[in-house]
Amino acid sequence: MGTPVLDKVGTTLYNEHADRFAIRIFNSNMKEFENMKHTALVIGKEEIIHQVAALAGMSLKDTDRVLDAFQGVVYGEVAKGHTVRLMGFGTWEIRKVGARRVKSIKGGKEITIPARHRVGFSVGAVLGKAATNHHA
After folding, report:
1. Distance (Å) of CA 37 to CA 23, 28, 47, 48, 124
2. Strand 90-97 relative to strand 100-103, pairing
3. How far is CA 132 from the centre of its chain?
4. Residues 130 and 123 sit within 8 Å (Cβ to Cβ)
5. Which one, of 74, 72, 50, lies nearest residue 62 by Cα?
6. What is the pLDDT of residues 103-117, one digit of tens each?
7. How far apart are CA 29 and CA 81, in angstroms?
8. How far is residue 53 from each of residues 14, 15, 90, 103, measured CA to CA in Å?
């Protein structure tokens, strides 16, 4: 395993070995992706579990538990108001959406949608390359 280091901001710990592993997975998937006929595919949880298990050499059951744990950690931290960052992949954070006035689809009257909080996701640099390299 690599040595944990701080990111540029000095707040997020990450592991160099895990980053290299993620980039290796990303690059191998891009090679497969480039050989595919480009259609709009949606990859669900089961397919993610199968691909991660194959790439990481884990059982499907263990991979499912890891994915569930990951989702639980992201959900729990965002629910506390924390920002969750995976270097190179992306960042989940709470964003405030202001109140706004819109025209109702029922009757056309103007209504006010109250201010609220929502979860936002910002794409990281490595993941952003997937869109840059996509040739539709």
Report:
1. 23, 16, 18, 20, 26
2. unpaired
3. 17
4. no
5. 50
6. 988 888 999 999 999
7. 33
8. 22, 20, 22, 48
Beta bridge partners of 84: 92
CB 6 within 8 A of CB 13: yes
Cα–Cα distance between 14 and 37 in angstroms, integer? 35
Q: Scan for tokens 């497969």, then name that residue.
A: 32
Residue-wise pLDDT for 40-72, tens only, equals 588 999 999 999 999 999 999 999 999 999 999
Please report how the helices 45-56 and 16-35 are oriented relative to each other, as an axis angle in degrees rounded to 10.
120
Alpha carbon 52 to its chain centroid, in Å, reads 15
Residue 106 has φ and ψ, to the nearest 5°, of: -100, 100
The model's pTM = 0.62
Tokens describing residue 13: 């710990």
